[in-house]
Amino acid sequence: MNESVEDLLDRVQERGGYGERRQAAGAVRSVLEVLGAHLVGDDRTDLAALLPRQCGPLLIESAPAGDPLTPSGFVGVVADRDGVSVADARRAVTAVLATVADVADDALLRRILTQLPPGHAGLFGRTDPF
User: Fold this and answer.
1) What's the mean pLDDT when you consider all of the chain?
2) Are 103 and 127 spatial neighbours (Cβ–Cβ below 8 Å)?
3) Distance in angstroms (rounded) separating the CA atoms of residues 20 and 39
4) Are the C-beta atoms of residues 113 and 121 closer than 8 Å to each other?
5) Predicted TM-score (pTM) of this structure
6) What pLDDT score was predicted for residue 59?
7) Which of 2, 27, 28, 63 lies at a C-alpha separation of 20 to 30 Å from 11?
8) Which conformational region is residue 83 in: left (phi greater than 0), alpha (psi within -120 to 50 degrees), or beta?
9) What 3 state SS string does 54-74 have?
10) Cis-peptide into 52, omega within 30 deg
11) Measured between alpha carbons, how far is 76 from 91 in angstroms, rounded to an integer?
12) Exposure pattern of 85-114 as b/e (b: 16+ CB <10 Å)?
């Protein structure tokens, strides 16, 4: 990927309506760590390779989750991690995952969504079925 971490943060900041880049950075960190915990194998490493190098470890080094999360469960985990409202967590999740969807090709995004329970496409700014 040619995008720098600054470009990625700018996109998340704009999508999420954040006033400061550090808010976007916090959203990226939390959402990618939760996403990474729910992905396995090549899909996780292929996605990490498309993101700025600073973002890859957030996906790859996440400990595997025990149970799959529904879309609302995904948002809830981010809310709990960050101590924010569900509305603020949803804003972070959709801003980050829609930006991730922009860098992933359709085949990779389809593989990622296959690993997640039904309904996650909307969090990536896509419609079901993908």
Assistant:
1) 93
2) no
3) 29
4) yes
5) 0.93
6) 93
7) 63
8) left
9) CCHHHHHCCCCCCCCCCHHHH
10) no
11) 12
12) eeebbbbbbbbbbbbbbebbeeebbebbbe
Collapse the DSSP code of 81 into the 3-class scheme (helix H, G, I; strand E, B; otherwise coil) and give the result.
Answer: helix
List, for residues 29-41, the tens digit of each pLDDT value: 999 999 999 998 8
Task: Say which amino acid occupies 95.
Answer: A
| Token digits of residue 117 | 């329970």
- Position 126: which residue type? R
Q: Is residue 3 over pLDDT 80? A: no
Asked whether 39 and 63 are in contact (CB, 8 A), the reply is no
Query: Is the CB of residue 88 less than 8 Å from the CB of residue 19?
Result: no
pLDDT of residue 2: 52
Give per-residue pLDDT as tens, 39-69. 988 999 999 999 999 999 999 998 889 899 9
Which among 59, 57, 56, 76 has a CA at the least distance from the CA of 67? Answer: 76
pLDDT at 129 over 60: no
Distance CA 39, CA 22 (A): 26
